[in-house]
Amino acid sequence: MFDGKFRKGVDGLTAPVGRGLAAIGLTANALTGFGLVSSGASAIAIGTGWLGIGTALLVVTALADLFDGPVATAQQSSSSRGAFFDSTADRVADGLLLGGIAWYLAGEHGGRWAVLPMAVLGVSALVSYERAKAELLGFEAKGGLMERAERTVVLAVAVAFEVLLVPLLWLLLALTSLTAVMRFAKVWHQASAHISR
Catalytic site residue 90? Predict the structure, then answer.
C-alpha cells in the first residue's frame, strides 16, 4: 500500500532530509548498516523485556531504512550493490525483530506463543519472495495491504503497548497472508495474460 499510494508524497518529505544527511557525509550503506545494528539491539531489548527501549530502537531502525534511499539518491550513489545490501538487511532485520518478539512471548506466555511471530516472519518472507521472483520474471508484484512499511508500524505499536502485542500479531498475520494471496493473484493474472498472447 505504501509503495502504491503514498510513495510520491513520502518521497517529497524524505528527499530534503536525505540531502541534508548526504551533505554531512553520511552514506546510504552506513545508514543501512546502522539500521541493521539497531534492529539487533531492539531484538535483544524486546526479548529481555525492555519493551520501551526496544520500541525506541525499532523506530531508529525504521528511520534508517526510510532515509537510506533518499541519501543514495542525493549522492547519486544508487547501485545494484546498495539495493542488494538494503534488501538483505531488511530481511535480516525482520528476522531479528520478530525473533526478539518470539523470545519475549516464550518467556512471558510460554513457548507456544513464540510460533505466532515466527508465522508472521514466514508469511512476510513469502511476500518479499513473490515480489523478487515476479520482477525476475518481468512481472510487477508491488502493493498489498501489509507491505514492510506497514508491518514495521504495526510492530512498533504492538511492542509499545504490550496489551496489544498478541492481538496485533494476529492482525499482522492475517493481513500479511492476504497480501501474499493478493500478490500471487496479481502475478498469476499477468503471467496468464502473457501466455495467451
Answer: yes
